[in-house]
Design a protein that fits this description.
By secondary structure, the chain is an alpha+beta fold. The protein has helices at residues 16-36, 39-51, 53-66, 83-92, 123-141, 157-168, 183-186, 189-196, 200-210, 234-242, 245-250, 275-290, 349-365, 371-381, 383-391, 396-424, 430-442, 447-459; strands at residues 103-109, 115-120, 174-179, 214-216, 219-221, 260-264, 267-272, 302-305, 317-319, 322-328, 341-347. The chain has 18 helices and eleven strands. The strands form three sheets. Strands 2-1-4-5 form a four-stranded mixed β-sheet, with no helix packed on it. A four-stranded antiparallel β-sheet has the order 6-7-3-8, with helices on both faces. The chain has a three-stranded antiparallel β-sheet with strand order 9-10-11. Helix 13 packs antiparallel against helix 14 and helix 16 (396-424) crosses helix 18. The chain is globular and about 90 Å long. The relative contact order is 0.08.
């Protein structure tokens, strides 16, 4: 390998296409060796990738230019890099023995009103984590269980929903809808490092990141468990920790009656035909999770049925922003003749409410924007939910979403026009809002009606 200290390239002129090809070839070789079970070859190739100039440049580019959080500073206060600084950082990544810096803790709001703690590493540590991920991910992709979908390349929430549909479309199932409590904060470090099975340089780095400490409001904390959310490597480490859960919960069953475990990060569902078995394996899941320092969250873990209500709860369940439910139907009105029910998957009520709130905020913050432009913005804002709806076969709801955007836009412009009419009628100060509000409520925005309302307001 050429001496990178003697390189004279300028960052914008680097051959990124060639770099991606180089790293891609190495990752393919790691994947194939891991699939064969050639552990010695895997480790040799991982060490080669860690030393690769192409991989180091791609890691720096990812954390300083590509990632959404590229402008977030760690404890050192560095939030961005110039091109020469990026080249310098790529050269520094050759040193794999440097002590990691502490992470900076920040809090972001969760949908339920709680605060989610994030740990933000420094830019250098983020780049090093990205480099380690390039080496670790292909080896673990060869091992991961087939129904694990969260934080994996080429997989998404839609794939998890499709897997659920394929497991319930021919027969209604009992469902253990489970959530792991504080998964990222409670993973046992010893169990995780033992499971990671990585070369010594990667194991040493991972141990350093787990034990580096957290700077929370000026106070240094040294947690004994957990991997901080916010790091590039944290999602992969969480998947490594939870690897084996599906095999444990489905092993020992005959192929035709084998239950299914669909997992997306720390959320999973267990699908089975027997309710008693669901109760039994709920306890078994807790026992397996206890070995890595985790447990199920009682408030978010429940037993449901896809077709019938159970224990005062409606049929179906919510998972990853979707509602999955089966409805009774005539035998000639079902996709599979004679089944007597249909399986429908649609955005959950919470997801739709959240999306409407986002659209409302867009409309309210652009009251003075031209209607045609705002209409395009509203429909573009609805595209995310619309794609979900189309993907699960409920495209008829798209018209309702677009109508919602159009109605909000028209109402906003009606209010703007009503204020102008009220001012033309002689309204002043608070009278403008009162007159405009009444005209909008009546949907009669006219100068004569504005004068009538203004006279009534002044008489009272």
């Amino acid at each position: 390998m050429a001496d990178v200290e003697k390189r004279t390239e300028d960052w914008p002129t680097l051959d990124w296409k060639t770099y991606r090809k180089n790293v891609g070839r190495l990752q393919q070789r790691i994947y194939r060796a891991a699939s064969r079970g050639d552990r010695r070859r895997v480790r040799s190739l991982q060490r080669l990738l860690l030393r690769s100039w192409s991989a180091r440049c791609l890691a720096v580019r990812q954390v300083s230019q590509d990632n959404r959080g590229k402008k977030t500073a760690g404890v050192d206060g560095v939030a961005s890099l110039t091109p020469p600084q990026r080249l310098k950082l790529a050269r520094q990544l050759a040193d794999l023995k440097r002590t990691p810096d502490p992470v900076r803790r920040v809090y972001i709001p969760k949908p339920n009103g709680e605060q989610r703690p994030l740990g933000i590493p420094t830019l250098r540590d983020r780049a090093l984590q990205a480099l380690v991920k390039l080496a670790l991910e292909p080896a673990w992709e060869a091992k991961f269980e087939p129904n694990s979908y969260g934080f994996r390349p080429g997989r998404s929430a839609h794939d998890a929903i499709e897997a659920i549909y394929n497991h319930i479309r021919l027969k209604p199932k009992w469902v253990l809808d489970a959530d792991i409590e504080k998964c990222f904060d409670r993973i046992d470090h010893v169990a995780l490092l033992r499971k990671l099975d990585a070369p010594r340089p990667i194991e040493r780095l991972a141990h350093g990141w787990l034990k580096a400490g957290v700077l929370d409001g000026g106070e240094m904390l040294y947690p004994e468990a957990g991997t901080p959310q916010g790091g590039v490597l944290s999602p992969l480490l969480a998947n490594v920790a939870l690897h084996g859960l599906e095999t444990h919960l489905t092993g020992g069953f005959p192929q035709r009656k084998r239950p299914a475990v669909i997992r997306y990060a720390d959320d999973f569902v267990w699908l089975c035909e027997d309710r008693a078995m669901v109760e039994r394996w709920r306890v078994e899941a807790d026992r397996w999770l206890a070995d890595i320092g985790l447990r199920l969250k009682p408030a978010k873990t429940s037993i449901r049925h896809t077709l019938e209500g159970h224990a005062g709860q409606p049929a179906g369940f919510d998972f990853l922003g979707f509602n999955v439910r089966q409805y009774r139907a005539g035998k000639r009105r079902t996709p599979t003749p004679g089944r007597g029910y249909k399986t429908l998957i649609k955005p959950s009520a919470k997801a739709q409410t959240r999306h409407r709130a986002q659209m409302k905020a867009i409309v309210r913050s652009h009251r003075a924007t031209a209607q045609a432009a705002l209409k395009l913005m509203g429909i573009a804002s609805a595209r995310e939910l619309a794609e979900i709806i189309v993907s699960v076969g409920l495209a008829q709801n798209l018209a309702a979403i677009r109508a919602l955007a159009t109605e909000g836009i028209q109402r906003g412009h009606m209010g703007l026009h009503a204020r102008q009419v009220a001012i033309a009628a002689g309204a002043q100060g608070n009278e403008v809002e009162i007159v405009a509000g009444k005209m909008v409520a009546e949907k009669k925005v006219r100068i004569d009606r504005a004068e009538e309302i203004l006279q009534e307001v002044r008489e009272h």
